[in-house]
Amino acid sequence: MASTVNDHAEARPGYGQLLRTRGAWTFLLPGFLARQPFAMLTIGILLLVEHTTGSYGTAGAVSATAGVAMALFAPQGGKLADRFGQGRVLVPGVIVHAAAISLLITLALAGAPLWALFAAAVPAGASTPQIGPMVRARWAARLEGSPLMSTAAAFESVTDEFTFVIGPVLVTALSTGVHPAAGLITEAVLTLVGGLLFASQRRTQPEPSRSGPGSGEKAVSALSVPGVRVLAIAFLGIGSVFGGMQVSMTAFTKELGEPGLNGLMYGTFAAGNMIAGLVCGAIAWRVTPQRRLLIAYPLLALATTPLWAAHALPLLGGLGLLVGLCIAPALITGYTLVDSLVPPTARTEAFTWLTGAVGLGQAAGASIGGRVIDSHTASAGFLIPLVGTAAALVVLLTLRKALSPKGESLIAARGVGHREPVSVD
To answer: How far apart are CA 182 and CA 51, in angstroms?
Structure first.
């Protein structure tokens, strides 16, 4: 039975109510399958290249190259998806990605020159499908103006982090227990199959934007909104946590003679994020998203402080869990802010800028962390999350006014802050 947004405002938004949205399961299930590879790509490259070269610095650099390519090309893919539709962009993208991963695996196992690995990592990262932003855009299209959007943002964060529980454990188990390339092979297969299934669900995808050449409307870039730029920097810092934790935990467990526990340790870190995401989505917040972000982000930076001092796996697992608990509130709030800052015709692009910023930060964290580890110890690599979040926090506090929709003259001029009641099933 349909109900208006006003009806939703009277009830406490919850996951059950969210999942009863008509058509939600048609894109959630294939979207869940297709987004698994996102958490497998960089660590899969890291494990394969470290096996073939014996250097964490080299492995981190190749992994970072894929991450940078992903971050740079993802927003362009999001812009194309907004304009032409998700399916028309996704189908060729997943085919190219599977081919690029196959090439990278072949070159790495054949002992190809380092430049060839870097060259192959570019299309591998650039073609990574941004399923998470596409799912978020579908939620936004169906829940326009509804208080359930915050619940949807929390649900998506939990789903993302569940992939970071499954993905690293799966790719590590396959790469260390079956074959060094098994993790990346699985990543390519899941991308291809899951991506094609998700692309086939055309009824729930947002209507393509008519802005652009020959449309008579001026195309608006999500990055032209100051608040999106500030959020991108904040998400860059969050990405440094993911990348620094990945490479440092890999080196730390190997240094202690327990490389098989790497996936478990990283999974514990991701599990903290997932638990916090579940809690955030179940709360009917009375505090504005802007204020929540300014509380959550300093807590994240503070939680990363003691990581470098951990010298035992149980202690590192506990600290990783704490950091994970602090990430989800910042991520969820950032994605929630997009709905009030960005026009509907640019949301997929906005989400990909944020996701791309996480990927870029992850790549930088893995690359710099790998070099620090090669020069010092695995524990020194845990300084990367602290430095990354501290630097981003300074920017966030300095430019915090940009996060207020009232400060966005572009949005105010377009009247995006006004939401008409719509039906939500």
So the answer is: 12
